[in-house]
Structure formats: C-alpha cells, structure tokens
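Retry 2 of 3 after timeout on previous attempt. Resubmitting structure tokens to design endpoint.
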C-alpha cells in the first residue's frame, strides 16, 4: 500500500517511535511517504532522525504562493468540495484555541497534501497526534484526498478535546488509533457511540534487535536515569526534590537527566539550590545508542511524569532489563506491574517518590535482576515494532475502499 504519513513537525528527538513505525511498515513492503508541515527546531543528534529528515516533504517550505495555487486549483477542479472544506475549517476554527485564521492556513496545507496524494497515487493518509496534523488530513479528505486515520498519544489531545474537535476527527476517520487501552477509553468519551468499533489499540513499538543483549544490571552505588523533555508535565522538578531528600542517606546516589527543554534553567537552579551538583547530570539530547548506554549504567529508570500517553522511555528501559519507578498515570499501569517489573507511585509527591527509590535501594540485587528480566519479557511480548506496525497495516487494509484493495 501507498500510505502518506501526515505530521506536524518531523522528525523530532522525542518522536523516534514514529520513525520506528514507518520503517517497520516499509520492511513489510508498504511505501510510506512522509509529509510534515515543518522541520524540527531541535538539534537532531541521532543519525536515524537525520536520515528521516532527508526523506520528508515539508509543506510550508513550498511557500505561500504554491500553497495558495494548490487551493486555487482545487477550487477550479471541485468547487463544491472546497466550499464544504472551507465551511469545515471555519467551524473548526471557531471552536479552537488557535482560531479561524490558523484553520484557513490548514486548509491551504490540506490542498497541497491532497494534490500530493493524487500525484503519488496515495491510498490512505495516516496522521500522528490528534492535533493540527489530523486537522490537515481531515480537510484534505474533504478536498478529495483518500480517507484518513490517526494515532492519538496523549496527554495533549486529552487536555483539549473540544478545542481540537477530537470527537469529529474520530467520527470522520476510517479508524482511529490509541496507543493504550486508557487512550482508547479517552477517545470513547468524545466519539459517537457508533464510532467505537473503529477505535483501535496499536502500541508504540521498540526494535527488539537493538536490545538483544542488554548489559547486566550493575551493582554498586545507586545510579538512576530519567529521560524526557524538560517541561512541567514530565515531573523532573519533583524528582529533584526527591533527590534532595535522599543524598544524606545515599551519598553516592547519582541521577542522569537525559533530555532538554524550556525548563532547563529552572532545573539547574533547583539542582544548585539543593547542592546536588555532584549528584545530578543534565546530559542534553542523546542519540538512541547513547541513551542505551545511560540505561546500561543505571539500576533503574525513574519516570516522575504528571501526564503521559504510554512512555517509550519505559519500554526502552524494560527492554534493557531495568526495573522502573513510574507514576500511576494514563497507560503506564498497563506496562509497569508493581512488585513484578517495578514500582508505581502517585504523581507529584516527592516524598513518596523518594520512598520508592529507598525501596529500590533496599531490594537485593538478585530481586532487582528478576524484576528487570520480567519487565523485559513483558515489553518484548507487547511492543515489538514489526508486530504493532503489522496491526496498523491490517487496519488500513480493512478500511480501504474495495477498489483499492
């Protein structure tokens, strides 16, 4: 099948799961066209992301004249469809936080995407995230492009479902994907009951071969790793507060904070205020190989998030045979089993998080190893990228009109 992936910003350092899904589909013989609205502003340190950038068509780089020309050609070719799409864009914009003007821009982007789809004989559009990329895909379909589906991740989509017209996006889609059962339940809140049968669960995946021989769980001083964008919802500030409660009792304790973002100055200030300079390292963005190296040196991954979908970093840590300390939110309990593969704690409480780290420290090494191995078996069984991509392809195939099978 020829499938166009519709994305807002691609590739991004924190969205390697999309790249893995795309490449898994290509390994299975499908032709995937990557269409993003814009390039990432973040530095791409991973060679895989750098290669993906070279394979991606960037809509806004076509320029305003070409986008407007695509819309004018749509008017000439199918004026009724354009009027219908214009009304949709106007209505969606009225409900949206970003307004009508932005949705008129989305309409011109959709015209460009629809024209691209016709030129390349695309059979299906698939968007990631239920935000503007799915809006563009929905408007493109209204202009005559093939039908669309989309994957929601959370938490952003579930924070503003009405502004994003999430229910309408589900109702008009050939099908909609959530990455966890929790995510599917959230889509069910906004979609018409008749759409529920088209709500699918397709997990984000890892490539098991990249975790074929994980480094044995180290002994010695306790070393923690946390991975994610430096933004409020990731909860790194709570983890710093927990570290401040622990270092007196564990003077060799060390935390690697892997990632970057707008909160870096705040985190640096908190580290300095608590005198944690020798206990916390901010690594910046790392390549996938470098992240695996940090996990190899760690005894656990800590994920202190306030809001998530189903975190890839948890999957990668479990595939590396590391027990996980995570917050009891969203889809995480579908993966992390307390007492079996790690610990789950309420979000936002540094004292409880610190206690979980104390519990880890008190757990005999052999038990930590067993927890890591149980987590590894669980994630490899549930989150193989080839298996999950095949599920997505089956859903696409089943949704295609009969004359395009």
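Retry 2 succeeded. Sequence:
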């Amino acid at each position: 099948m020829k499938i166009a992936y519709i994305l807002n910003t691609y590739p991004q350092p924190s969205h390697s799961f999309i790249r893995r899904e795309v490449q898994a589909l290509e390994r299975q013989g499908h032709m995937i066209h990557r269409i993003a609205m814009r390039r990432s502003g973040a530095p791409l340190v991973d060679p895989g992301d750098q290669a993906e950038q070279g394979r991606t068509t960037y809509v806004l780089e076509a320029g305003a004249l070409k986008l407007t020309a695509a819309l004018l050609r749509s008017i000439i070719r199918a004026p009724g469809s354009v009027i219908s799409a214009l009304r949709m864009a106007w209505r969606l914009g009225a409900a949206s936080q970003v307004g009508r003007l932005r949705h008129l821009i989305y309409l011109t982007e959709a015209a460009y995407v629809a024209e691209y789809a016709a030129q390349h004989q695309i059979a299906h559009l698939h968007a990631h995230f239920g935000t503007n990329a799915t809006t563009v895909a929905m408007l493109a379909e209204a202009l005559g492009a093939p039908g669309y589906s989309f994957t929601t991740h959370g938490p952003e989509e579930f924070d503003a479902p009405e502004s994003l017209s999430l229910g309408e996006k589900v109702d008009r889609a050939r099908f909609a994907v959530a990455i966890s059962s929790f995510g599917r339940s959230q889509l069910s809140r906004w979609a018409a009951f008749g759409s529920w049968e088209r709500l699918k669960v397709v997990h984000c995946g890892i490539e098991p071969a990249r975790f074929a021989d994980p480094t044995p769980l180290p002994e010695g001083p306790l070393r923690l790793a946390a991975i994610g964008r430096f933004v409020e919802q990731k909860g790194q500030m709570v983890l710093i507060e927990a570290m401040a409660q622990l270092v007196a009792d564990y003077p060799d304790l060390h935390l690697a904070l892997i990632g970057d973002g707008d909160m870096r100055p705040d985190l640096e200030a908190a580290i300095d205020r608590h005198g944690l300079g020798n206990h916390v390292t901010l690594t910046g963005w790392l390549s996938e190989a470098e992240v695996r190296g940090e996990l190899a040196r760690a005894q656990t991954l800590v994920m202190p998030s306030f809001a998530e979908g189903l975190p890839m970093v948890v999957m990668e840590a479990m595939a590396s045979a590391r027990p996980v300390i995570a917050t009891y939110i969203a889809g995480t309990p579908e993966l992390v089993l307390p007492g079996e593969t790690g610990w789950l704690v309420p979000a936002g409480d540094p004292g409880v998080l610190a206690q979980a780290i104390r519990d880890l420290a008190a757990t005999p090494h052999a038990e930590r190893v067993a927890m890591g191995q149980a987590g590894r078996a669980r994630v490899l069984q549930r989150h193989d990228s080839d298996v999950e991509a095949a599920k997505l392809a089956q859903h696409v195939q089943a949704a295609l009109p009969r004359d395009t099978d």
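Attempt log closed. Residues 321 and 373 are 5 Å apart (CA to CA).
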